[in-house]
Amino acid sequence: MEEGLQLAVVVCWSVVLIVVLSVLKRVLSQMWLKPARIRSVLSKQGIRGPRPSFLVGNIPEMQKIQSTITNKITLQKQPSDDQRVQHNWDSSMFPYLQQWTREYGPVYMYSTGSKQHLYVSDPKLLRELKLHNSLGLGRPTYLSKTMQPLLGNGLIRANGHEWAYQRKLIAPEFFLDKVKGMVGLMEESTMALIETWESRILESQSSVAEMRIDQDLKTLSADIISRACFGSSYSEGNHIFAKIAFMQDALSNPNLLFGFLNFSFFPTETDKKLRSMNKEVDAMLLKLVKERRTRSELGGVYEKDLLQMILESAATESTDMPQYRHKTDRFILDNCRTIYFAGSETTALTVSWALMLLSLHPEWQERIRAEIVEVCGDHELCHCLQDMDTLRKFKTLTMVIQETLRLYGPGVVAAREALTNMKLGDFDVPEGIHMWVFYPALHRDPENWGPDANEFKPERFANGISEACKYPQAYMPFGFGTRLCIGQTFAMQQLKIVLSLILSKFSFALSPNYQHSPIYKMLLLPEHGIRLLVRRAQ
Known about the structure:
The chain has 538 residues and is α+β, with helices and mostly antiparallel strands. The chain has helices spanning 2-43, 59-75, 95-104, 123-131, 141-146, 148-151, 160-170, 176-179, 183-203, 213-230, 237-250, 254-257, 269-297, 306-320, 328-360, 362-376, 381-385, 388-392, 395-408, 439-442, 446-449, 488-505, and strands at 107-112, 115-120, 137-138, 208-212, 413-418, 422-424, 427-429, 434-438, 506-510, 518-521, 523-526, 531-536. The chain crosses the membrane at residues 6-24.
């Protein structure tokens, strides 16, 4: 009996030992062996970087550099009125990336815990990234997991064949021939905003009104994308956007972006709120989808909004590809989330930053108005905008938009993970490395853009992007490679329509209460809003 008991104890402890050793082996592999292998592959190719510490990598150094820059900015004196808007704010955002660029060159490696990163700002390697079309280059898996409450499993988060399947269904709905049909709703929503602004000017004691335009433009963009997505059901969009805005704010911590260690094992109040909102957004979207399906089955006729197009594409594709049939509803819900977030917020921000820049440069406001008169002649602008050829003639407006996207593009960083070993130019890129591109630094590089890189000069785009700088592949406001933003055409059309209509009615100047403080919260946001003085155009 005793021998049997002893044997059981030995077996029990053996199992425990095996489990412990297995866990230790896995931890050692993930925290040391795999990172060391990745760094070795890069090091042998001459790629350098700051020396990492065990377990934490370069996190302490990143935090120290960030703290030093933050303290320096805090101690600076308040600039005078003519200096309070400086366009070189990028030096205070992720300053360690730029400090290491100066120390180690345009391509270097660094570490955040077990995650190994490759920073890329070399034009030749950027060109290779743009041209690379393998499914082996995807969205970082750890980052995708973090963004799940906001984006579901939609196009932005998906990788591999799942991503290819989703893009095949969604991309055609943003082709130019489809976007043409959305011009009318863009105009209608913008005219409603114009009426609101005109009322505010009338209510003011003078001919000018101070407004925080970024909030109004966010509402406008939400209205446009809601109507484009859901047609007559667009009023539901307001509730969805409010919840998505909360999730965006909660998930915008840079620690999550770079995969810093998180030792919280219990859900916080924010985590619980995110889960709750996640379910609520799904329920609202699913309700709209079910209502649309029911009415369609009863013979209802709908305009070809994005929801209807996606429903029809998903139904057809699930018949042709039965392996995806069970994912149809999930596909629709997740990509509606993606369209809401990426399609409305980014465009609203670009219009807001553009009007801020034009407030500083009223001569460009006048040039745009003169161009509208020249192109449209005696025709009403709204009628004029219905013609796609007319929009292409707005060269000055296009230059202003391109320069705004260069200096204040809504996207701040782009990340790619090598899901398999691959070749990029002369480099062998090991599986598991996370590649990073910091747009603001690329778009202000004096080696590429010249000594006036920090100045607002739309004329640099007079002959197109290819002639605007030395390395046009380093201009990427809509991303790069196969994961280039599928809504680029939709966004550019909306930007031209909204800006042309607004600038034909109003002129803008910077408010004395405007505080220039661009911050990163998944996108480039104005921390204190954008306050402008608005008056009717002469």
